[in-house]
Amino acid sequence: MPLSDHDVKLCESCGARIRWTVTAAGKRLPVDADPADDGNTAAYYDGTGRLRSRGLTKERPVLEHHEWLAKPHFATCKNPPARRSSPPGARTRTGVRPVPWRPR
Length: 104
What we know:
Structural class: mainly beta
Order of helices and strands: EEEEEE
Oligomer: single chain
Distance between the termini: 72 Å
Shape: extended
């Protein structure tokens, strides 16, 4: 069954077609819009219509039910955004760690 294009967005960096999924940890993960035979992520629509994803692991290495193979867009983006780093004046921790209070 072909996927509909109702939830397809364009990547802001490279303009490729992507779909935003939600992982089991609640994080957003962009995947390429079209299924990929060499993907390592299982994507599926849950009962509420939300696009979910999970990584293929040793415990669950195959697709289940209505899942399809997807590839995370981070692996295929032609123009990935620059990696974020801490600002130049970032706070560094110094000093002594406080000891837990104990009655004498």
